[in-house]
Each structure stands twice: as C-alpha cells, then as structure tokens.
Amino acid sequence: MKTLHVDLGNRSYPIFIGQELLGKAEFLTPYLSNRQVLIVTNETVAPLYLDKVLSAFAGYQTATAILPDGEEYKNLTVLNQIFDSLLSNRFDRRCTLVALGGGVIGDMTGFAAAAYQRGVAFIQIPTTLLAQVDSSVGGKTGVNHALGKNMIGAFHQPQCVVVDTDSLLTLDDRQFSAGLAEVVKYGLINDDEFFEWIEHNTAALLARDAAALNFAISRSCQNKANIVAQDELENGLRALLNLGHTFGHAIETGCGYGEYLHGEAVAIGTCLATRLSAHLKWLQPAAVERIFRLFETLRLPTAVPSQLTVEQMIAAMQVDKKARDGKINLVLLYGIGKAALTDQYDVNLFQQTLKEGYATVP
Q1: Which of 43, 67, 232, 355 sits most deeply, having the most CB atoms within 10 A of its CB?
Q2: What CA–CA distance (Å, rounded) separates 245 from 189?
Q3: Any bridge partners for residue 60, and if so which?
Q4: DSSP code of 236?
Q5: How, if at all, do strands 338-342 and 96-101 pair?
Q6: Do 156 and 306 meet the contact criterion of CB atoms below 8 Å apart?
Q7: How far is 287 from 294, CA to CA, in rounded Å?
C-alpha cells in the first residue's frame, strides 16, 4: 500500500492506494466526525461493494443512499435524495458522508456534504479509474445543469481518499479507457517522463496489470496533490488540470449527458487542444502524432461527434467556468509536459481547429 498526502495545512488529508482496502476500518474510521455515517453509492456499485464497506463501520449508525447510475443523473433533483436520507435519519452536523462510486457519486456526495447544515465531513472511496486518478482528489464537487457541466458546486475537501485498485477489476473496458484519458493528461501538462512511461506501458495498463496500475494511479494522484497544494481554488496553476476539458464539457453538454463518458470527451478535447497548439506553432508535428497515437492505442475517441456543429460547440464553450469577459480561456500545449492557460489565440485558427476536429487524424 502507498500513502500520499494533499498538503493543505489543517485541512490536509491522506490518499491510501492499494489492494483489499474497502473493508478495512483502519483506513476509514479515524477520519469520521462522529458515529453517524451515510454511504452514498449507485445501483451499479452497491451490489458489488456496499456490504464490504458497511462492514468497516460495524457499530456505527449507518444509512445508505443508492442513486441511479449515470452522468445524466448528476443534477439537483437526484442530489435531493442524499438530503432526504440525511434528514430522515436525523443526521446532525457532525455526521460523515462516504462517497462509494465513480466521479458522479464523488462529486454529488461532496457537494451534499458542502451544503448540508453548511458543511459536514466526507470521505472519498472511488471505484473507477477516472475517479481514482482525478475527481476524488482536490475537493471539486458539484452537479450539472442542462446548459453547462459542473456549473453548480463548491470546493470542499474530503477527510481522506481510499483507492482500492481491486475495484477496477469489475470496471467495464469503456469506463476503464475513459479513466486513462485523465492519466495521459498528467503527462501532458507537467510530466513528460510519465507520458513516455505511459507510451511504453499501454499493454500493461490495458491488461490491468497491478504494478502498472499502482504506479499510474500513484503518479497521477501525486501530480494532482502537488498542484492542489499550490492552488486549491484554481486561481492559476490548477487550471492546467483542465486540459481538454473546455472542449470536452461542450461535447458532453451538446450530445446530452451520458452519451459520451467524461474521459472520452476529455480525450477528444485534448486532441482539439493539440490541433490548436500545432496551428499556433507551439507544438511540433511529431508531438501531435504521439498524442493522437497514444489516445488511439488506449481505445479512446479523437474526433468531434458528427451530431455537433461548430456553432453548437462554441455556444457550449462560452458557458464555461474559465470564460472571462466573453473570452474562452483554453489550456494549450507548447510541448509534451508543458501547458499554459490562455485566451491569446487567433479566433480564425480556433474555428479552423473545430472544423478539422471531425477527422480522426490531424
């Protein structure tokens, strides 16, 4: 087992990464506020892991909220099911919420914890690769709106993150590949050695080799922890973690939540950012080819969905948390392992990039 730390002063917390962690109380109960525990999960994860997690809280007052599974349910209406469980069980402001599931469950549980009685504790137990390497760490919580993804939310850090890599053995191939898109992101924004490692270990990753997964998850979490420690509220450096996300969120919103998995949309968005970076002469053709080839090898899409028009993409991108004064800020690449947030790009090249994005190759 490996333990990492997110250094945020008196709100610092550990990330435990290993196998067979779900039922072990020593990684969970020291981080509870009192004896009231609400476990929030979904209809897919509950039959697989809920009993094991409940066993870790033997002797505690526990309740569960089992939500429908899917990005399309990440909204305020479904969020109320968590509040219904908290209130009907008379949980007080010292209770702890436990998020057992993927990114949707983690984001919604964290947001509920941030809002319930103006803030209660929560713990992350991510069960998808995407959640393990990205969304469970850093305290971003929230829900979607029909007009924009993750536009309603709060920063609220967990008490701890427990990553049991065994849970990836029950993850379907599509969800697993979607998580790899976020792994690649860390290599692209600030860790070229990690990017090269991913290139050389694609077979092991796709085969879910335990050693390869442990390394990829640990390296990704360490990269994110380092950035969050420097810029918790995304005033600068942390924005680099959104490589591909402004494009990707537009795809998710435009196609309807759930049509494309978050990681799939991020992969396409990263390919668009790569194209634009090349048009700006920031990125060399050889680097562009490496990025596209890696996504294809990891079984991820690289082309904009044909059902979206350029106009729809732009309209959706204008409803983005990084938009300022009507300008769309983008994370672009000026090398593998080097990224920057900017609105200083040629609008004509931006539109050209979107038009070219329907092709699978640059």
Answers
A1: 67
A2: 13
A3: none
A4: S
A5: unpaired
A6: no
A7: 11
Measured between alpha carbons, how far is 143 from 107 in angstroms, rounded to an integer?
7
Q: How confident is the model at residue 327 (pLDDT cuts 50, 70, 90)?
A: confident
Q: Tell me which residue of 213, 218, 223, 211 sits closest to 187, measured CA to CA.
A: 223
For residue 75, report the phi and psi dihedrals to the nearest 5 degrees: -145, 175
- In this model, does residue 199 exceed pLDDT 80? yes
The predicted structure's pLDDT at residue 352: 97
Q: Look up residue 95 and give its two tokens.
A: 């209770």
Active-site residue numbers? 118, 140, 182, 224, 234, 238, 242, 245, 249, 262
CA dist., res. 127 & res. 136, Å (int): 10
Domains, the chain: 2-170 (3.40.50.1970), 173-356 (1.20.1090.10)
pLDDT in tens, 244-266: 999 999 999 999 999 999 999 99
Strand, coil or helix: 161: strand
Tell me if 154 sits within 8 A of 6, measured CB to CB.
Answer: no
Q: Tell me the mean pLDDT in the region 21-50.
A: 97
Residue 141's pLDDT is: 98
What sign does the CA torsion over 293, 294, 298, 302 have?
negative
Q: What 3-state class would DSSP assign to 180?
A: helix
Burial letters 190-203, b for 16+ CB under 10 A, else e? bbeebbebbeebbe
Q: Is 330 exposed, middle or buried (0-12, 13-18, 19+ CB in 10 A)?
A: buried
Identify the three-state secondary structure at position 234: coil
pTM exceeds 0.90, yes or no: yes
The residues near 192 (Cβ < 8 Å, ≥ 6 apart) are 335, 336, 337, 338
- C-beta separation of 184 from 294 below 8 A: yes
